From TrEMBL, chain A:
GO molecular function annotations of the record: ATP binding; ATP hydrolysis activity
NCBIfam families cross-referenced by the UniProt entry: oligo_HPY
Protein name per its UniProtKB record: Oligopeptide transport system ATP-binding protein
Entries under Pfam families matching the protein: ABC_tran (PF00005), oligo_HPY (PF08352)
One GO process term, biological-process aspect: transmembrane transport
Family to which the UniProt record says this protein belongs: Belongs to the ABC transporter superfamily.
Annotated ABC transporter domain residues: 7-256
Superkingdom as given in the UniProt entry: Bacteria
Keyword check for Nucleotide-binding: yes
From TrEMBL, chain B:
SMART domains reported in the protein's UniProt record: AAA
Lineage: Bacteria, Bacillati, Bacillota, Clostridia, Eubacteriales
Major localisation: membrane
Domain annotation ABC transporter: ranges: 13-262
Protein name as it appears in the record: Oligopeptide transport system ATP-binding protein
Organism, scientific name: Lactonifactor longoviformis DSM 17459
Membrane topology, from the record: Peripheral membrane protein
Gene3D superfamilies xref list: P-loop containing nucleotide triphosphate hydrolases
From TrEMBL, chain C:
Superkingdom in the source lineage: Bacteria
Name recorded for this polypeptide: Peptide/nickel transport system permease protein
Source organism of this protein record: Lactonifactor longoviformis DSM 17459
Family, as annotated: Belongs to the binding-protein-dependent transport system permease family.
GO cellular component: plasma membrane
Record's subcellular location: Cell membrane
Keywords carried by this UniProt record: Cell membrane, Membrane, Transmembrane, Transmembrane helix, Transport
Length: 330, 328, 279
């Protein structure tokens, strides 16, 4: 099979300046995303999973260049997005689109669905004759009734709104879609509808998608590969089955173990992660996970472990994953 | 379930109905809910947003039904008294004392300008008229018990200095101060990360084992229910549609809605395609006879418009769906 | 829009305010038709006539009919307030959008200038500008316009700051919509409500300011029938002919009241928190 790399992210980092708690005049750096390197192949869904504050949403916005990266580059089909002028960037935006978590807030409440869907077409100079046909086709594909066009966002349920925002995102045939927690704001029975829609669209059009979520089960459901983030860094990337069947990083193992499954009594015997996530302002030296890690020791404080290929296509950022103590359960 | 005072049952709720008069019209949020809670039992009330599960909990505490546009009817028997009938003063004495509540959002449940220790101890000042200093000392002991490290120092912190998980621990500590017999936990882990959620679920389980406190857990997450609950009641559109022990419910779900919920949530390691429940949950403004789920149900039949009382299909397993009742 | 009209018509304040203002608007438009006398005509045989009879509200020291002058005065008052508030709105909203949307240095400079202008009492600032420009009808409109610019700039800046951070603006940016389109299509419509309320309130204050400046003798030319000039004139005769000053005073109070309660009403009508809970 032809493996064509569409999106190449290398060394992407973002630091936010925050006021120090002890000395408000002294600026401290919050390291939200650190040195993230990823590639997306054409027609692939890559899942990004992590807990709140791990930098996954910041990563999405960095790739979209909704916020400016501190370091690193995002290359979309040979074009370095991080170096484009804002004029040129605007023109290129039709190639990478975002689906937001809160489908209500993502729409201007004063605009009708028609106006909302026409905006991307107008912005990118699509001839007016094509608008109606394109919009109608999108509505059919995303399962929105045609009479929705003259109505307003508040008249729709959360699931319908998310369908509309998916329609808006794919209207311009983007090369990459970034979905930031697209189902987290929805009710459980509606989540499945949206997950299936994304999965179907992805398969039908060979869409390339970055799917960001805190929920590993839904990430795994839609993604071919999954990257696990912890405190701004990617600690493990693997094909989605391999990640679940043989998680190598102790954090991934703990994350999987913490997810409640609908099997009574299954959770009681599990090992638990102790402590809480350290502050991204005062990161521990070396591996950021070592204080909570059952296998962490002095050696882990030495340097930040690098992502290394443990098995074909399975990368892990832990120096200990090979040693006997890291038992692969499950 | 018929006898007047079942000794075993700590709390017995009968035909609970909650109605609201809203701008959009009359809303029948809870439509005749029955359940009981034994000492040391964890009962899960599962359902989607708007199914009436939180309203049910709030009405038990008397937090709903006080205003002109709210109406609560039915009975809730606790120690031989119907607590729904009690005057506000007496209900107040129960709240946070014998029946305590934990809310979803650990950010807003704490007063941001009050030190954590003081806040946790406050219930003792209110319910047991204890002195500030004594209350604080007991608060520190309780904070230790719920797993807050160096509780003595942390008690002097303000809520914003606590992480989300620590805040939820502090709230649990304050709910335990008066040794309640019933703990009502409304989505206690929804705002937390999974690794922290696992810790809080462990803590709730420990509390039940140590203090034999009964817990009414309100959640939308079947995983959480399976993890923690002894008994499960599934709510849909203001009614309980299925009720069984957790083991029974997860191994033999009967109601099409329960089955639908289980099939539409992605589970780690499961490959099958999700089967979404078509349509939307109903808004509770209209009164419709018969099964409320019928519109979305794959097994719908004309008979579904008849009564929806719970039927005991297997010992302890109740279901409102007459279709499965007949087949089973 | 339909909902807005419905809520507007059910708001007693808004309707009452509009009715009062409608009265003034009609008198301004129809002044030549409804005024019983020429406002400039001096009847030397009827000086300081008390109210009643031929001159419904009496005459002033030069024998001019007070009712007619008040009717014509509404033209001046409305003209001054409308023009000056238009100037203030245009300039203030422009500056506010610049400051709020682009931030950084632009915001720093605009915000400092606004603060300096706020540090002066309004009348003092207007006096200063009038002293430079010289008294005339046009100049007073410019002066009042400048004086009211900072309040619009500040309100707009605050509203823009909030809306700018909202997800739908970020979504528009992610589609590639230009800054100009974002401002015109997504930000301005969403900051309109507070600006609209401020416009009505400022219209009231502008009438007062014109009256105050004219009263102080540095407003419009003294022969023009402005309410402020009439009030100024009235003060000299207050002991022997109260009507010369009192009726223009009532006119000012009524017009200001009209704009004020309309503003309060609009604030309620436009407040999203008071809107029907949507879904």
């Amino acid at each position: 099979m032809d493996r064509e790399i569409i999106l190449e992210i290398s060394g992407l980092s973002k630091e936010f300046a925050v006021k120090g708690r002890m000395f408000p005049y002294k600026k401290e750096m919050l390291k939200a995303v650190q040195d993230v390197t990823l590639t997306l192949e054409k027609g692939e869904t890559l899942g990004i999973v992590g807990e709140s504050g791990c930098g996954k949403s910041t990563l999405g916005r960095l790739i979209m260049r909704l916020i400016e990266p501190t370091r690193g580059s995002v290359v979309l089909e040979g074009e370095n997005l991080t170096e484009l002028s804002s004029q040129k960037l605007r023109k290129h935006r039709k190639d990478f689109q975002m689906i937001f978590q809160d489908p209500y807030a993502a729409f201007d409440p004063r605009m009708s669905i028609k106006a909302i869907l026409e905006e991307p077409l107008r912005t990118h100079g699509i001839p007016k004759e094509q608008w109606e046909e394109r919009i109608t086709r999108m509505l059919e594909m995303t399962g929105i009734p045609l009479d929705a066009l003259k109505r307003y966002p508040h008249e729709f349920s959360g699931g319908q709104r998310q369908r509309i925002s998916i329609a808006r995102a794919i209207l311009l045939n983007p090369k990459v879609i970034i979905a930031d927690e697209p189902v987290s704001a929805l009710d459980v029975s509606i989540q499945a509808q949206i997950l299936n829609l994304l999965k179907d669209l992805q398969e039908k059009f060979q869409m390339t998608m970055l799917f960001i979520s805190h929920n590993l089960a839904s990430v795994q459901y839609v993604s071919h590969r999954v990257a696990v983030m912890y405190l701004g860094r990617i600690v493990e990337i693997a094909p989605s089955d391999a990640l679940y069947e043989r998680p190598l990083h102790p954090y991934t193992q703990a994350l999987i173990s913490a997810i409640p499954v609908p099997v009574p009594g299954a959770g009681i015997q599990r090992k638990r992660l102790t402590g809480e996530v350290p502050s991204p302002i005062h990161l521990p030296r070396g591996c950021a996970f070592r204080m909570r890690c059952p296998y962490g020791d002095e050696a882990c404080a030495g340097k930040v472990p690098e992502l290394t290929e443990a098995e074909p296509g399975h990368y892990v950022a832990c120096d200990k994953y090979k040693s006997a103590e890291v038992i692969h359960e499950i | 379930m018929k006898e007047e005072n079942n000794i075993e049952n700590l709390l017995e709720v009968r035909n609970l109905q909650v109605e609201f008069a809203t701008r959009q019209g009359h809303m029948h949020a809870v439509r005749g809910v029955n359940f009981s809670l034994k000492k040391g039992e964890i009962l899960g009330l599962v359902g989607e947003s708007g199914c009436g599960k939180s309203v049910t909990a709030n009405s038990l505490l008397g937090l709903v039904g006080k205003k002109k546009h709210e109406k609560v009817t039915g009975e809730a028997w606790f120690h031989g008294e119907n607590i729904l009938d009690k005057p506000e003063k007496e209900q107040q004495k129960l709240r946070g004392n014998k029946i305590a509540m934990i809310f979803q959002d650990p950010m807003t449940s704490l007063n941001p300008v009050l030190k954590v220790g003081r806040q946790v101890g406050e219930v003792l000042e209110i319910h047991q008229k204890k002195k500030k200093q004594d209350a604080l000392e007991e608060a520190i002991i309780q904070l230790q018990k719920v797993g807050i490290p160096s509780a003595k120092e942390r008690a002097e912190d303000y809520p914003f200095q606590f992480s989300g998980g620590m805040r939820q621990r502090a709230i649990i500590a304050s709910s335990l101060m008066c040794q309640p017999e019933i703990l009502i936990a409304d989505e206690p882990t929804t705002a937390l990360d999974v690794t922290i959620q696992a810790q809080i679920l462990d803590l709730l389980r420990e509390l039940r084992d140590t203090y034999k406190v009964a817990i009414l857990l309100i959640t939308h997450d079947l995983g959480v229910v399976a993890e923690l609950c002894d008994t499960v009641a599934v709510m849909y559109a203001g009614e309980i549609v299925e009720k069984a022990s957790a083991g029974e419910l997860f191994s033999h779900p009967l109601h099409p809605y329960t089955k639908g919920l289980m099939a539409c949530v992605p589970v780690l390691g499961r490959k099958e395609k999700l089967i979404p429940i078509p349509g939307q949950p109903p808004k509770l403004y209209e009164e419709k006879a018969g099964c409320q789920f019928a519109d979305r149900c794959p097994k719908r039949r004309p008979e579904c418009s008849r009564d929806t009382s719970l039927l005991e299909i297997a010992p302890g397993h109740y279901v409102s769906c007459k279709e499965v009742g007949r087949i089973g | 829009m339909k909902e807005f009209m419905h809520r507007f018509l059910h708001n007693k304040l808004a309707v009452a305010g509009s009715l009062i203002l409608l009265l003034f608007l009609l008198s301004a438009v129809l002044a030549p038709v409804i005024a019983p006398f020429d406002p400039y005509y001096m009847d030397s045989t009827a000086v300081l006539m008390p109210p009643g009879g031929k001159h419904l509200l009496g005459t002033d020291n030069m024998g001019r009919d007070i009712l007619s002058r008040i009717i014509y005065g509404s033209r001046i008052s409305l003209q001054v307030s409308l023009v000056s508030v238009s100037i203030a709105t245009a300039a203030g909203v422009f500056l506010g959008v610049l400051a709020g949307y682009f931030g950084k240095l632009t915001d720093g400079i605009i915000s400092r200038v606004i603060e300096i202008m706020f540090a002066f009492p309004e009348v003092l600032l207007a006096l200063l500008i009038m002293a430079i420009l010289g008294p005339s009808l046009n100049n007073i409109m410019i002066a009042i316009g400048i004086v009211y610019t900072p309040i619009f700039a500040r309100i707009t800046r605050g509203a823009v700051l909030t809306v700018k951070e909202s997800l739908h603006v970020e979504a528009a940016r992610s589609i590639g919509v230009s800054d100009f389109s974002i401002i015109v299509r997504h930000i301005l419509p969403n900051v309109l409500a507070p600006i609209l309320v401020q416009i009505t309130l400022s219209l009231a204050f502008a009438i007062l300011s014109e009256a105050a400046l004219s009263f102080l003798g540095i407003g419009v030319e003294p022969d023009i029938p402005s309410w402020g000039i009439m009030l100024n004139n009235g003060k000299s005769w207050i002991e022997i002919a109260w009507w010369v000053g009192v009726f223009p005073g009532i006119a000012i109070a009524l017009a200001v009241l009209g704009f004020n309660i309309l503003g309060d009403g609009l604030r309620d009508v436009l407040d999203p928190r008071l809107r029907n809970v949507e879904n």
